[in-house]
Every structure is written in C-alpha cells, then in structure tokens.
Amino acid sequence: MQHRIIVLGAGYTGAVTAGRLAKRLHREDVTITLVTPEPDFVERVRLHQLAVGQDLRPRPFSELFANTGVELKLARVTGVDVDHKAVMVTPADGPETEELHYDTLVYALGSGWDDGGVPGVTEHAYEVSSRTGALRLRERLADLGAGRPVAVVGGGLTGLEAATEIAEARPDLDVALAASGTLGDWLSDKGRAHVGRVVDRLGITVHERAVVTAVGPDAVTTADGRTVPSQITVWATGFAVHPLAQATTLDLTDRGQILVDTTMRSVSHEDVYAVGDAASAIGPGGKPLRMSCASGVPMAWQAADAIAARLTGAKIPRISIRYYQQCISLGRKEGLIQFVTADDQARERALTGRGAAFYKEMICKGAAWGVANPTVGMPSRRRRVVQPQARMDVPAGTVA
C-alpha cells in the first residue's frame, strides 16, 4: 500500500516541499498530492510589481511538476481533521466537497494580510499579499487620475516596496507612506540613509510614528489626530496566518501558527508537518523565525528531508536555518540589501543602488527557479519506504 502524502498550499514552501519529496521517495511507494486553488505558481515577492501594471512570467504547475510524480489537486481547502487524518476540499471545477485521506500531512497554507481590527480596512483598503489583491489594486490604480493621493500604511518591507514601486511607476500620483515607527528603523545607519534618499527622490511623503486607527474612502486617520488624504489606501502592516488551523486540535501559538519541533513536525500530531508562515519554529538565538521566504524555504527543505528519512529508515539530516540578508526592492532601479546576523539583526554592511536592485532580482529569480529544482546540487536518489515497524522514528516533540 502506498504512503499517502498531502501538501496543503503551493506557495514557495508547499511547492518546494512537494518537489523535494518527489526527488527523495520512490514513486511506487508514495503518492504526493499538492492541493492548491490556482493552476499557476504565484511569485508573492513580486506582487507589488503586478499591482502597478507589470506582467509577470506565468509558471504553470503542470509544467513545474511535469514527470515528477506530484499530483496536482486544484481545490480550496475548507477543513482539516487531524484526528481522523482527513482533509476537506472544494474542487475548482465544482461545488461539491471532497474528503481526502492522508498518512502524512504537510500544512503550508501560509498567510494573508492582517487588517489588525482597524475600522474601515476591509471596506476601503487594498492589499498586495495575494494575486487577487494585487490585481484588484492594479485595476484601481489604472483608473486613478493624475495628482490623486495614495497612502501606503506600513513601514516594513512590504510597505516600502509597495510605496516605492507605485511612486516610480506613477510619478503623477501623490504617494504617502505611514509608518508606526521611524522610516527604516530596523535597518543599519547606511540602510536607513539610502532608503531616505530614495524616498525623497521619488517624492514620497513619509508620516513617521503614525499609527493608523481608521481607514475611510478618501483618507486615513492616525492615533495622534493626523488625517492623511487617500483615494487608494494600501494596507501593508503585516501578515496573519491562514485561520484554518484554529479549527483543528493541533497545538498552536496565540497567533494561530502550528507549533513544530526542529524537523518541522507538529509537537502534538506526529503525522503532521507545518512549514512557512503557518508554522512557529525556533531559529538562531532562540527566536521564532519571522514570516518570510528566507525562513520558509529552508523549513520546507527540513520538513521534506525529515519525512523522507523517517519513511525510509535513514538518519534525519539537519538544515541550517539562519538569516544572511534582507532584500528590499525600491522600484525597478534601486534596492537595498541589508546584511544581517544569523538571528536577523542588521549589520552595518549594506549594498545599495542599482547593484542592490540587480541582487534582489537574482534572489527573486532564484526563489522561483528553486521551486522547480528543489534538489539541484544535492544527491536526490529516490529511496524505498520501509515497513512501519522498521522505521527509525521518534515521538513528536523530540529531537531525532
């Protein structure tokens, strides 16, 4: 009987996990089903580009996973029953719910925008955390006349990239950025200075220490009483995990992330693994890994290798999950590569200008390439699954 592996979600982490498992395990011994509602891979790190009218290269899963043994299930996940090892999905081509059963589950449903409970966000704001959201913003920006105000709320990576991309693509608009702290306050002195110069050159008005408390159809309001005019408000204050896990019996954090051990296996259910934004894993310095592609892809490698090792009786390899840099695009001509410590603290060293923009572009291309080539440069001999009683396994929550 084949061991049934189901991977929920086909973002960077889910797609990489599925592809890596397919390279590690013998096709006669396992089935690998990747559940995703969209037929194409979404380059989430480029959605701010899509929002301003740029066309992204299509990457159909049918091509990415051709001849790999990964079976695509185009469907939306509506429920997970981890106690009975079942997943409920609604196929893209029909309204009827189906039930899929698994032996091993990889939960990679990721995250979406977080409205923070701020009044007016869901009614009036736009987001760039999903392709649907980016396309909706794209349409609205295309209809917006010259001289009209646009406000981007959120001074982190997503907010900076969205604000600079919009200002560069539409210099005829009045773009503002509202940050809860100071501009680039987590960056090095060199990094902050460069961001400030680029923002000034693009004509972006920065509102620092501006905690937005309400979003209206034509303005945002801050906690200190400021009113920032806005015909389009882009909400980029952070991410919230997919809420589906909260309806399960999995052990979760207060944020709804699945608690995992060092191999990305759930601490409460040994047949469930979680990767990417959906999981809470501890990184260097005892700190939880942040929601990012930089964290998620190594988590996917670790989960796939651990699953394959446990099924084949091999020793579980250890993947180093640490940080090296934060890559920020500041439009198409400028960028910032902020080098960081293993636990993600800014070093003084930073790469700026066109060189940084090129560096970031190579990182984006490499991330997409890695989805289709999850084991290039590494041994990828497919191993046979051993009988359950012979597997070299350990209880959930321990280090193997």
Automatic annotation (TrEMBL):
Q: Which residues form the FAD/NAD(P)-binding domain?
A: 4-304
For this entry, list what GO says about its biological process: aerobic electron transport chain
The cofactor required is: FAD
Source domain of life: Bacteria
Single GO MF annotation: NAD(P)H dehydrogenase (quinone) activity
Write the record's keywords in alphabetical order, separated by commas: FAD, Flavoprotein, Oxidoreductase
Which family is annotated?
Belongs to the NADH dehydrogenase family.
> What's the protein here called?
FAD-dependent pyridine nucleotide-disulfide oxidoreductase
Source organism (scientific name): Streptomyces collinus (strain DSM 40733 / Tue 365)
